[in-house]
Amino acid sequence: MFLTEREKSQELDFHEVLERRTELGEGERKRLKMLRQGFHGEQIYDRLWDEVGHEQLLIFRDLWLKIENATLQIDALIVGEDRLIVNEIKNYSGMYQYENGSWSVNGFQISEDPLAQASRTAGKLIRLKYGSSHPFEIDRKVTFINPHFNLTIDSDENEKHIVTRSMMKYYMRDIAQQHAGPGAAALSNTIRSCIIDDPMTPPEVEAGRIRTGLYCGRCGSFGLSLEHFRTRCTRCGHSETIEYQTVQAITDFAILFPGKSITKQNIRWITGGEVSVRRMERYLNKYCTLARRGKHSAYTIDTSNLKELLKIKGYDSKYEKDKKILAD
Ligand SMILES: [Zn+2]
C-alpha cells in the first residue's frame, strides 16, 4: 500500500501558477516542461503499481527525509522485512548513452546522472542503520518508465541498477512477492520519524509581472463577466462560482509568494479588486486561519492544494456544475 500521497512539488505548483498569470521566460518554460514531465512519469510509475498490486507492501512516495545532517529526496521507497528499495523515477525519452561515467542524449552530454543520484540517496540512507536495532540492506534502481527510452550502457555493474519500461511490471511483481511483516513496520516507523516538508523554496517573482484578476478554469481567459454568485467566461462560456475563484486566487497567492502574508490587501490585489470586500472577508474567514488580528490581519492556509483546501473547508458542491472539481 502507498503510505504517502504523491503531490506536485512546490516548484511545479509555482511554475504552473506563473504560467497562468504571466508570460514565461525561456528558462521558466523549459523548467516547467521538465517538472511536468517528471511528475507525469511518477504518476505512471504509481499506476503501474496499482496494476501490479501493492496491498502487501509498504511504499513511501515522494519523500523528503532528514537523516542526521543529510537531506534527501526519494521518488519511491519500498520498505521490506530486511530491505529498503530506492526507486528513482525518470521519464526520459530518446536515445541515451552511458559511457565512462557520463550520460548523453542523441549525442549531447547531459549534466544529470540518475545512477549517481540513486547511489547518493542509498548512501545517505545507510546512516539509518546506526540508529536502528533492526538490520537491513539497501537496494537501488533507476526506473525509466517511458517506453520511448532507449539506452546503450557500457557496464554490467551499472546496468544492474536500471529497470526500463518493458521490465517494470516484472520488477514490481518480483518485489510484490515479498511480505511486509513486523520488521518492515518497524523500519517504516524509523523512516516516518525522518520525514520533513519539501524544503525547496521556489524562485522569487516580481509582483509587477503578475496579471491580477480572476481567470477561467477551463480556458485560462481573464475575460470573465461577474454574475451574482458566479463568473462566466466571455471566451468559452464556462461558469464557476466566485467562491471557487476567490479561493483559487488565495492559493495562487500563497504559491507565488510563500514568503508574504495572506492579507486582505494582498488578496484584493491578486483578485484585481473584482470581489467585494465583504465577500472576500467571508471567504478568508472560511478557508484560512486568522494568524494576526487588527488593521493588518494576516491569515494562513492549511494547504495550497486548491482541491484539498476546498474539500477540508466544506466547499458546497451544489453550486458546482462541474463535479470533477471535487472528485477524488
Ligand atoms: Zn473560458
Give a verbal description of the structure.
With 328 residues, the chain is of the alpha+beta class. The protein folds into two domains: 10-192, Trna Endonuclease, Chain: A, domain 1; 208-326, Arc Repressor Mutant, subunit A (Orthogonal Bundle), CATH 1.10.10. It is built from eleven helices and 15 strands. The protein has helices at 10-21, 26-52, 114-125, 128-131, 156-159, 165-176, 182-192, 242-256, 264-270, 277-287, 306-312, and strands spanning 58-67, 70-79, 83-90, 94-99, 102-105, 108-110, 137-144, 149-153, 162-164, 224-226, 230-233, 239-241, 262-263, 289-292, 298-300. The strands form four sheets. The protein has a five-stranded mixed sheet with strand order 1-2-3-7-9. The mean pLDDT is 91. The structure holds zinc ion. The site of zinc ion has 8 residues, from loops. InterPro entries: NERD (IPR011528).
Note the topology.
Elements: H1 10-21, H2 26-52, E1 58-67, E2 70-79, E3 83-90, E4 94-99, E5 102-105, E6 108-110, H3 114-125, H4 128-131, E7 137-144, E8 149-153, H5 156-159, E9 162-164, H6 165-176, H7 182-192, E10 224-226, E11 230-233, E12 239-241, H8 242-256, E13 262-263, H9 264-270, H10 277-287, E14 289-292, E15 298-300, H11 306-312
Helix pairs in contact: 1-2, 8-10
Bound molecules: zinc ion.
Zinc ion binds at residues 216, 218-219, 221, 233, 235-236, 238.
